[in-house]
Amino acid sequence: MSEPQASSVDVSEATLPGVGKKYTIGLRSGGNLALVIKPDGQRQMYHFQEAEDRPCDVIKLDRDESQQVANLLGQLVVTAPKQEKLALMLGALEIEWLELNDASPLVGKSLDEVRLRSATGASVAAIMRGELAIPNPNPSEVFKPADTVVIIGSHEQCGAARVLILGSP
Fold it and tell me: pLDDT tens digits, residue range 111-169?
């Protein structure tokens, strides 16, 4: 008796600069599962409900734990990207820290209102607010004077973002 053939499941792959690789699988039951593989071997699994942008579950596994889970599931573990290859990919990226002053066009506006990525192609990776770090800020996060905005993108994207953020070239 043969097993019914399952239809394929799409997996998307993305490089997360300075972090590793992210694999996302759409779930038939709705939502998706994201697996982040770091160069040090740590794996993080994020379960997202349908139409949600925050995970409902997060599981962190070390290399041995992830291998054991893979053994139980009957598949090989996806290997972490090689450090040399990751360094080559990161060479085309820039990360900049831009401090806002009272006159910055961003002050008092939310990330969603500013539309930085749509306008410039650069992404806001974090906002540093005093001793507080806000990684991957929500679109509703409002910029304040003295915030340091951490952006990531190509040389051209960061240059365009710098003009938008600081109000001058």
Answer: 999 999 999 999 998 999 988 888 889 999 999 999 999 998 888 898 999 999 987 66
**Closest by CA position to 62, among listed 83, 44, 80:** 44
What digits encode the pLDDT tens for the residues 21-55? 888 888 888 888 888 888 777 888 888 888 877 88
Report field, pTM of the whole predicted structure over 0.85? no
Collapsing DSSP states into helix, strand and coil, what is residue 35? strand
In one-letter notation, the amino acid at residue 55 is P
Hey, what CATH topology would domain 92-166 get? Answer: Alpha-Beta Plaits (3.30.70)
How far is it, in rounded angstroms, from Cα 143 to Cα 54? Answer: 21
Instruction: Give the three-class secondary structure for 58.
Output: strand
C-alpha radius of gyration, the chain, whole number: 19
Is 101:74 a contact under the CB 8 Å cutoff?
no
Phi and psi, residue 47, nearest 5°: -105, 120
Question: What is the chain's length?
Answer: 169
